[in-house]
Design brief:
Two copies of one chain form a homodimer. By secondary structure, chain A is mainly alpha-helical. The first copy, chain A, has seven helices and two strands, in the order αααββαααα. Chain A has a two-stranded antiparallel sheet. Chain A binds a DNA duplex through helix 2 and helix 3.
DNA sequence: CGTTGTTATGCAACGAGGTGCATAGCAGGA
DNA sequence: TCCTGCTATGCACCTCGTTGCATAACAACG
């Protein structure tokens, strides 16, 4: 139940509407925490009634008006409390790993194209991360050598990069393994 | 919604009761697919009514009787169908990454012990994987060089090992980053 | 004999999360 | 003008998943 906290962090980095949050969850934040817009709107309303966030109606021209959310003091406290509590390591769900073990009871070679699809997706993400790193962290910070927000965003991004590289290498391993069954049928 | 399929794979590897499945989901399978026993029992009943699995009452001495499930032909077909369908890459949820970015608005150094806890958990998992690898895959297969089940289980395990190694290296990176804020407060 | 622990199965209730759909303002192109 | 597409918010429904609890058989220990 950390969606609230992910939203708090995102709003602390920059206030915004539910729609804008949903878009961020498709981009930067979404690479380590996913959420649909319905979920975000629902949680935002709960956070609003809990006084975790403030709302401000922002009239817009050329597009519908929006509600801009920003973090209120109780929200900051809630985040601080959550940061001080231990969190259990994430529970993993890898369809592909299930499929690979399941392929032993079907045709292993039939999985090759699926694995290649995943490899391509991870290659694309890696390229996206690297482009973002070059853009946002390519040159030294203008705010001094110890800008916490920037440094911590960077180390999280490096985690994403390391993850994608690991996945690509592993998927190559998987492909090599599957290919052996293909060749000798 | 691949829990059914994870159960099918597990039952194909070896038939067993709901309880036994739950224990497997705490061990080997659980490292890439988690499930509680309630979930497993519920899904097993659904799978039984869909004729995906057969049940056999097994009286036991010295402990309560059990129901042993095994995969029925329609279950095999369902698995085969699922294997042939493309699956979207997993949705990720990393509490720790949220916490790290959130630490920029709190005390970054306060996260160090939490990150160390996670590092320890991953080190433990890695050791467990490596022990399992040495045990199960240390010597060449007795069933010939192309035992699909064994080879595919091994490549999935290698994925787990690669993941844990990557995580440990990244957490060291995180710790080094956090330490910089600690030193210069 | 009572307690604790393990095997084994299950119910009830709740919250999290996802899908589909609806609405509405406005822009831009066919 | 109609259609498509983007911004922006929301409802209804249903499934997934977790928590807490309950039951029952037996083993081992004090």
């Amino acid at each position: 139940m950390a969606l609230e906290h992910a939203i708090l962090v995102s709003l602390l980095e920059k206030p915004g509407s539910g729609y804008e949050l949903a878009r961020r969850f498709e981009r930067s934040i979404g690479y380590f925490w996913t959420a649909t817009h319905q979920q975000i709107y629902r949680v935002l309303r709960r956070m609003e009634s809990d006084r975790w966030v403030d709302v401000r109606d922002v009239p817009q021209y050329g597009r519908p008006d929006k509600k801009e959310y920003s973090v209120a003091p109780p929200g900051r406290e809630a985040l601080s409390l959550w940061l001080s509590e231990p969190t259990e390591p994430e529970s993993v769900r890898h369809d592909l790993a299930v499929k690979i073990r399941g392929a032993a009871f079907d045709d292993p070679a039939a999985l090759i194209s699926e694995v290649e699809r995943h490899r391509q997706a991870h290659t694309g993400r890696l390229a996206h991360y690297l482009a973002g790193e070059a853009r946002d962290f390519g040159e030294p910070s203008a705010d001094g050598p110890l800008d916490a927000e920037r440094e911590l965003q960077h180390v999280v991004l490096r985690g994403g990069i390391a993850y994608e590289r690991m996945m690509i290498a592993w998927l190559d391993d998987v492909l090599a393994t599957l290919a052996r069954f293909d060749a000798e049928h």
